[in-house]
Design brief:
Layout (H helix, E strand, L loop, with lengths): L2 E6 L5 E5 L9 E2 L6 E5 L36
Antiparallel strand pairs: 1-2, 1-4, 3-4
The structure holds zinc ion.
The site of zinc ion (ZN) has 8 residues, from loops.
Length: 76
């Protein structure tokens, strides 16, 4: 069950609550003042380590600084 963060509309208290996916859009009630609390969009899921999108060219061991090709028999 995922955990969600809520912020109380009334007293501003932030708290976390476990709840099933099917009830994710329901408001929670503040544990301090019992008023309605809105869900804060999850921060940690936005920052999950999925930054493997870029495919930087990897120097394959045989390249050199003066030529960009992987086999530099032309520049030596
Ligand atoms: Zn409250």
């Amino acid at each position: 069950m995922p955990i969600y963060e809520f912020c109380c509309n009334e007293c501003g208290l932030k708290f976390e609550q476990l709840r099933p996916m099917s009830r994710v859009d329901e408001d929670a009630s503040c544990p301090r003042c019992n008023n309605g609390a809105k869900r804060i969009p999850s921060v940690f899921s936005a920052f999950s380590k999925s930054s493997g999108g870029e495919s930087a060219p990897v120097g394959g061991g045989s390249g050199c600084a003066t030529c960009s090709s992987s086999s530099c028999h032309s520049c030596h």
